[in-house]
């Protein structure tokens, strides 16, 4: 495994400029999706949920507000420090690398949402992460992996974009390289210094995911295609939302 300092997400996700760039994300849409997903999965009132790669915990908080016991884990220490101010008896947050065994279970549901998978340089690490999560699922438990529809995303890539947020102008360059969808992010920070980060998500196909699931001992129950939970259509769906059973 590469040292954390060498991995793009370990620095970019802890940067205040990451949160600045994405401050206009549609959280109302995310809450609507989570509400539909809960109705679709219908967890028992006593269910324990894991939000895997929870960021600052906004979605874990919403899930907890619906009455469930929720644990959120994320690699970003700064994000977890922010989330912990909202922790309570039934809402817990931990700094955790999903490639390491999870000691917080067992869980009835594991949710990995909004393309929080496929970041690792070595493909085998994706399987390790899934196996670790599956190990913390109770028998009969379910896992949800929400990923982009890779084929559609590559076809629709906007190569160059400029976005100004407050006093910061971000220059974005998107491309496909060595099995990864890459977004390069350049800007001058508040001190006027040039900064450069990148985001890298492995271009995982449905078929490759299905190989991962088999290796992790998970059974694919269904694939949903968008945040309205319509069935997945390869040619038109924006998302691949996998519902898996242990």
UniProtKB/TrEMBL annotation:
Methyltransferase domain mapped to chain residues: 50-141
Keywords: Methyltransferase, S-adenosyl-L-methionine, Transferase
One Gene Ontology biological process: methylation
Taxonomy, superkingdom: Bacteria
Single Gene Ontology MF annotation: methyltransferase activity
InterPro entries in the cross-refs: Methyltransf_25, SAM-dependent_MTases_sf
Cited Pfam families: Methyltransf_25
The protein, known as: Class I SAM-dependent methyltransferase
Biological source species: Hymenobacter perfusus
Lineage: Bacteria, Pseudomonadati, Bacteroidota, Cytophagia, Cytophagales
């Amino acid at each position: 495994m590469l040292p954390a300092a060498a991995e793009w997400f370990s620095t970019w996700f802890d940067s205040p400029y990451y949160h600045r760039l994405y401050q206009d994300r549609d959280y109302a849409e995310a809450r609507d999706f989570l509400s539909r997903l809960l109705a679709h999965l219908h967890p028992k009132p006593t269910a324990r949920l894991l939000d895997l790669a929870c960021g600052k915990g906004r979605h874990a908080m919403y899930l907890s507000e619906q009455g469930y016991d929720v644990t959120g884990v994320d690699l970003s220490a700064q994000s977890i420090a922010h989330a912990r101010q909202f922790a309570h008896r039934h809402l817990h947050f931990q700094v955790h690398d999903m490639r390491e065994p999870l000691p917080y279970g067992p869980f009835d549901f594991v949710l990995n949402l909004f393309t929080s998978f496929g970041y690792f340089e070595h493909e085998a690490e994706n399987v390790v992460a899934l196996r670790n999560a599956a190990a913390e699922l109770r028998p009969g438990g379910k896992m949800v992996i929400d990923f982009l529809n890779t084929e559609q995303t590559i076809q629709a890539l906007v190569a160059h974009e400029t976005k100004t947020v407050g006093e910061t102008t971000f220059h974005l360059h998107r491309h496909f390289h060595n099995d990864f969808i890459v977004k390069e992010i350049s800007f001058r920070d508040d001190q006027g210094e040039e900064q450069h980060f990148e985001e890298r998500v492995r271009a995982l196909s449905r078929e490759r995911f299905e190989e991962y699931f088999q290796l992790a001992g998970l059974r694919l129950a269904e694939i949903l295609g968008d945040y309205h939970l319509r069935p997945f259509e390869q040619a038109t769906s924006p998302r691949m939302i996998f519902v898996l059973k242990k």
